[in-house]
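The passage that follows is intended for readers who have already worked through the single-chain material. We present the inputs for a multi-component assembly, then the predicted structure in tokenized form, and finally a short commentary. You are encouraged to pause after the input and sketch how you expect the pieces to fit together before reading on.
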Amino acid sequence: MGRSPCCEKVGLKKGPWTPEEDQKLLAYIEEHGHGSWRALPAKAGLQRCGKSCRLRWTNYLRPDIKRGKFSLQEEQTIIQLHALLGNRWSAIATHLPKRTDNEIKNYWNTHLKKRLTKMGIDPVTHKPKSDTLSPVDGQSKAAANLSHMAQWESARLEAEARLVRESRLKSTSFQPVQVQPQLGSSSSPDIVPQLLNKTAAASAGAPPAPPLCLDVLKAWQGGWSKSTKGGFVACVGNGPDLESPTSTLSFSENPLPIQNVGNAAVDYYGNNDNEGGMVKEEGEEEWKGFKDRVESSMTFSTASLQDVVFAVETPWSPESRKVENGHVGASNFMDGFADLLLTNADDHNESDRGGDSDNGDGNVGREGFSYEENKNYWNNILNLVNSSPSDSPVF
DNA sequence: AATTTAGGCAACCGCTCCTCT
DNA sequence: AAGAGGAGCGGTTGCCTAAAT
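Having made your guess, compare it with the prediction:
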């Protein structure tokens, strides 16, 4: 709003950095920290704008940057998180602590995007391109449902936030929330546990939730059961490792209309006959901000993730769903997505990847996703989030 | 060997968000 | 509550290098 660009000053250098400039910047930051980026160049004796200095530091000079070729695991992480988050490079970068968002962005644009395209997958939607040719068959519908899952999750977070607010009005007597230490690394460490607890309490038809001790990772491993009302109950925290009482999130009053999951999210959370009171009302901006905080920290609520899996699994074949040791029955990571991707990745890459990607199941080397592949694709994305390293800054 | 083309990456630009006053 | 400044993010550009002709 009227503020002049930081680099507009005459005499400031642009373009590639010289080793001397790098040295000056490095030396200054090592001694003083960066402090105010705007003030840094003058103090460090650099003819650069602060923004340029920050960029140089974060993308190149920072000591904890890993440079060089991306590993197989890193590629998988990027692709799957991109499917979930879109072009939110900084969020993706939080899962690859030694890579910069810029590096990831470049790698995506120059390598991974092309590879997906070559496989017949739209790199934007992560959906088989063939879907657009025959959008009416059941399989395509399922894939279309999947493509909305990120939006779904987003809408859900908004709704949860609304529920928090509503529950504040309805109840003033919640038990203190116990938070396991792992969550402390989140930028908003208190949000999710409270969110879950209050969401559970506010859910229509759900009994008052006991205090919830949430460890996202453990909770994610919790089992599932189908409710007797035809809805679904996510049993949070009943895995063997959990010490806390079980919290039950019930959506039995509102079985999700999965067949139109993208639009359904709107209805479900906004305008449906929702007895849970998920009604759009005042304070949208506040809740948008709330949601963004949750999203930006990638602190997915357990319920959200499980709902997503629910959305993935349910419309296809509920009976075929496997639950193994409390995990969602996604196929093995390497057998599923990675094989599909890397085997299709052709030709020019296997030599430097170790070449262990062909599982010989016949699902490779062709365009488009099969039903199972689609399922695996998304389940693996969720598994990735689930299996994020515990020292990840976002979990 | 010279020229053209394509790929890869660092850096810039403009916008948005957040914080402070 | 509103405005200004700072920081961060994502998109894009432009340069450099390698490969192809």
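Commentary: Residues 201 and 207 of chain A are 7 Å apart (CA to CA). Confidence is low (pLDDT under 50) at residues 1-8, 132-369, 388-395 of chain A. How closely did your sketch match?
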